[in-house]
Amino acid sequence: MEKKVQRRATRFVTSRHRNRSSDSSDFNARTGCDDDFVIIDENEHGDNNLSDFIENPVNALKDLSFPIKRVNMDKGKNRYGNMLLNFCKGNGVFILNGRMGRDQNIGRFTCRNASVVDYCISSPGLLKSFKDFEVLDSSKLLSDVHNPISVTFYCNKNVVNDHAENVDCNSHDNTVKKINRWDSEKIKDFQNNIDVEKIVELEYKLCNTDLNDVNKNVINTFIGDLCNIFVRCGQATFGISSVKRNKNK
Predict the structure, then answer these.
(1) Where does the record place the region Disordered (predicted)?
(2) Residues 21, 16: Cα–Cα separation, whole Å
């Protein structure tokens, strides 16, 4: 787990977009209510005007009216929590849990209703792009112990969704690709490979669909979307094999 935290931290700080970057993950880090920032005392530098050259990341929170101190229902701490806090302090990165959106001043538990180990962190330059942050109710379909985290961004550009799939255009090929057999030993991998964002997106569509507009086509669309989620999950978990086509078909 320590190497996992270090890898994510390294990828974050080495990104060419590090000034506008965020990361959301299970860090296995319990941070309590300790500060994830260092306040730069402008009076401490006296008359040398060093404060004019030192960027104070905390100002980004003040500019957006985000609370400086975050709230956390989990008061415990562990070694990974100290690592995450030190990373935030050293790189001017902030934890969003308990600080913004519907989780502001709450800091809801994210694991077993007993601890906060799943976080979304962000660099100051990206904070203004966040519209909402929320810890959702737990779902056995998505995880046996963790709560999903929902993050919403503002978007000022037209986004075109490209639903094109990779297809085998070799029509002369006498093989077809199929998902390998179910392997009970990979149940955990299957659960982890479920696209949570797609599930949340589908749930949102279901909850916001007018029942008066529901017909056979609408139902088939929802069923198709759900099937595609599990098909892609199966491909990622069990792999794909090429088998010969049945010549009788």
Answers:
(1) 1-27
(2) 9
- Cα–Cα distance, 226 to 249 (Å, whole number): 28
Exposure string (b/e) for 90-124, b if CB count within 10 Å is 16 or more?
eebbbbbbbbbbebbebbbbbbeeebbbbbbbbbb
Q: Check if the beta carbon of residue 138 is closer than 8 Å to that of residue 111.
A: no
Q: d(Cα 59, Cα 3) in Å, to the nearest integer?
A: 31
Give me 131's structure tokens.
Answer: 């519209």
The residue type of 145 is: V
Using CA atoms, how far apart are residues 193 and 195, in angstroms rounded to an integer?
A: 6
Q: Per-residue pLDDT tens for 198-243?
A: 888 888 888 888 888 888 888 888 888 988 998 899 899 999 888 7
Residue tagged 């929902």 (tokens): 150
Q: Between β-strands 118-122 and 94-95, what pairing exists: parallel, antiparallel or unpaired?
A: antiparallel
Interaxial angle between packed helices 2-14 and 79-91, expressed in degrees from 0 to 180 and rounded to the nearest 10:
10
Predicted TM-score of the model (pTM): 0.61
Q: Look up residue 131 and give its DSSP letter.
A: E
Of the CA atoms within 13 Å of residue 129, those in its CB half-sphere come to 14
Counts of helices then strands in the chain (DSSP H, E): 6, 7
Q: Which long-range contacts (CB under 8 A, 24 or more apart) does 15-19 make?
A: 18/91, 18/123, 19/123, 19/124, 19/125, 19/126
Q: What are phi and psi of 74, to 5 degrees?
A: -90, 110
